Amino acid sequence: MEAGQDLPGPKAERAGCKRPQRLSRASRRGDGKTARTLQRRVLQAWDARLLATRRVTQDNRGKNTAGVDGVQALTPSQRLQLSPQLTLALKATPVRRVWIATPGTAAQRP
Q1: Three-state secondary structure of 60-97
Q2: Is-above-0.85 flag for pTM?
Q3: Which residue among 57, 61, 101, 102 sits deepest, i.e. has the most Cβ atoms within 10 Å of its Cβ?
Q4: Residue 45 belongs to some domain of the structure
Q5: What is the rounded (10 degree) CA torsion for 75, 77, 79, 80?
Q6: HSE (CB half, 13 Å, CA atoms) of 97?
Q7: 4 within some domain
Q8: pLDDT digit string (tens) for 57-93?
Q9: Domain containing 32: what range?
């Protein structure tokens, strides 16, 4: 993939939807071993990471809202570099709360 291109869209999304569907079917029929294997594959899949990055940085309504790091928009090459950094930690970290000044008043909102 070239650095100037957007992350894969509908074609990769169709391909990435098959694993979760298989996982759901295995879970419904009570096949725990297959469900666990598919769950691990879904979490480690390269196309799933690309799709997650795409949804957050391109398709999401809040894509132009700066995060706690102050970065507002990412270039396509930065998006591609972001994908391999996605990992699933064993325990979630707490959300960082930042207080934003309300325009025209001295009040602040979370």
Answers
A1: CCCCCCCCCCCCCCCCHHHHHHHHHHCCCCCCCCCCCC
A2: no
A3: 57
A4: yes
A5: 170
A6: 4
A7: no
A8: 787 777 777 776 777 777 888 888 888 887 776 677 7
A9: 10-109
